[in-house]
Amino acid sequence: MLRELREIVQRVTASSDLNEAMAGLAQQTRQAMLVDCCSIYLRRDDEPCYLLAATDGLAPEAVGRARIPLGEGIVGLIGEKEELINLADAQHHPSFKYLPEAHEDEFRSFLGAPIIHQRKTLGVLVVQQKQVRLFEEGEESFLVTLAAQLATVIAHAEARGNLKSRNWHGMLRGLAGSPGVAIGKAWVWRPRVELDRVRVRRADDLPQQHQRLDKVLQQVEAELDGMALRFKESQAGESMAVFEVYQYILKDPVFIGLIREEIEHGWTAGSAVKRVCEKQIAQFANMADPYLRERAADIRDLGQRLLTRLIHEDEGPLALSEPIILVADEISATLIAEIPRNKLKAIVSARGSINSHAAILARAMGIPAVMGIDHSFELLEDRQLVVDGYTGELLVEPAPSVLKEYRRVIAEEAQMDELFATVRKEASRTQDGVQVSLLLNAGLSADADIAMNDAADGVGLFRTEIPFMMRDRFPSEQEQVHSYRRVLTSYVGKPVCMRTLDVGGDKQLPYFPIVEENPFLGWRGIRLTLDHPEIFLVQLKAMLRASIGLDNLSIMLPMVGSLDEVRAARRLLDRAWREVSAETADEQGIIRYPSLGVMIEVPSLLYQLGELAPLVDFWSVGTNDLTQYLLAVDRNNGRVADIYDSLHPAVLRALQQIIDTARKHARPVSICGELAGDPIGVLVLMAMGYRRFSMNNSNIMRIKYIVRQSRTDELHRLLQEALSHRHIGAFKGIFGRYLEERGLGGLLRSAL
């Protein structure tokens, strides 16, 4: 019955009307299972009942009228128990509830399965027959499988159907891309030229096609330069690196060379751009790493920008009369740059994730963003929206009472931002005199600038992957020296911790592809660089040369799982230091040997900390990966992201073990995952004894304010209280109240 199942799902998916989809589903399921009746009951949010939404077998006039209260009848029992029920004669079951308007007197046997989407029961799928019999195991499996397949379809179809009603108000759910709240009218953007719809054509005038390409390359380059300049002059200067990615692609001789090859093969300039871009989009889209996967959107945006210039005359900047909420199927960094900052309230995107450049830019600019809302947006045009970047919720035409509450939230956030700004020049010290270091996470294309941040105590994690990703070959030693020197000189007198190359199975380089079945457990980080000492040594030497005369460099190894990896890396660092020192001794003096540390993100290292301590100078906890590996949860996977919990008991025990062992062996330890920048997370960590936190630029000020409002002795007592509770939510409740008592309850919206 697999073919029938597939056909039913495909037909329902293709329908844009919920009622039509349900009616078709009932009819097709009845025919496929050879039963006398198939019905769908959907749970209502506005009243506690299951409503007969569609049927093929019961009285048609009962659709939309017959209701079964929650907890009543066999349908209610299925919803309550969240499991299949198979009855030979349903009318003799104690929970049977007769529906006179449905005319179901003649039906005896009953098989029902719950329709569940993201742990929420949406309804119940039921088949019935007139004869008394138990349904067979194969029929049970078919109905359960169909219900599971249809859960997502029904959820999306319901949302699409709701949007068709201009009077509908409700909520769509996506991913929280950038924190904050915004209220405004939707402005739905559509590209003038869509890459997928451009038809390829042949050309006879090849020299003219090359000239057309040269012209638009210059135009788009000037356009990107202008965008980058506008961002530099605004308060979002840290976002400049996004446009470096675009400009690099535009000047990449390999990328441009491929387009010229297509022209030489007889294609028009536009067709050549389309063919090359589509091939590169497909390559990026198939990559396992979520950040690299999002680069397909950059290629698409740049290709459409080139095609727009080739096909249409430039229309100039976007003209907007009032601030808007930007809504689009896919939002690029350049689209955001085209909209004046004072006209952009928030962004909402159907495609994209928290790793997309749109989300990264939104966070850097302080603009709320919701990503990955999988719906068509045409019907949102000019409708009032609330974008909740904390929860990933999009509210459509919210009720006046809801609007009032969100306006209060926005006013409160503005007051808190002003409050946080007052401590920029102050020390990161608790009220009982404990000094805390607040460091910067930097180097990820656009999430932080390398320019001096006077509110930060240094750089706790500089990711070195971008110089490798932005080329069509491994960067030379001198190219790396230039990149690293820029960072180190920006923080003279402050520590800068550089992580060695962390690429591999899940972060592939375009020129060094690796194919693995499970890249997250594959050849990556220190595993790859130790296997290629020629790459590792060049990077270590570049870091050492870049640090000459500055003495603020420390080096950190990623993805370490064994002590042998640390010993091997130390030997290579020794060699690099000796060689660079010998080459530069006469000119520039002796190079200070840098501190060497490891990222604790692989759980195996938790059981080797005592033996690790003599081999390294410090360690830093990557809470993002450590949590994912401990809980076996990919937080970018929407189906399981809700069980990713940085305050899970296993994670907390691991963190306590790490700090306790660090104290015992007198090793500095820091936190460089997102938990460090979370209001509740940083309080819990301080209670455990952590004193060094590395975070994104946008979190520095608020965490500094929280630190200055706290007392470590009080936090330690709260930790003991939370540990005495059995339920996971105790930490959020107890430390949340601590924030509320200090007038910081508004921060709880973004906490964990």
Report on the structure:
- Helix content is 44%, strand content 15%.
- By secondary structure, the chain is an alpha/beta fold.
- The strands form three sheets. The chain has an eight-stranded mixed sheet. An eight-stranded parallel sheet has the order 21-20-19-18-17-16-15-22. A six-stranded antiparallel sheet has the order 3-2-1-6-5-4.
- Helix 7 crosses helix 8 (269-285), helix 17 (533-546) crosses helix 18 (563-588) and helix 22 packs across helix 24.
- Its main location: cytoplasm.
- This is phosphoenolpyruvate--protein phosphotransferase.
- One of its GO terms (biological process) is phosphoenolpyruvate-dependent sugar phosphotransferase system.
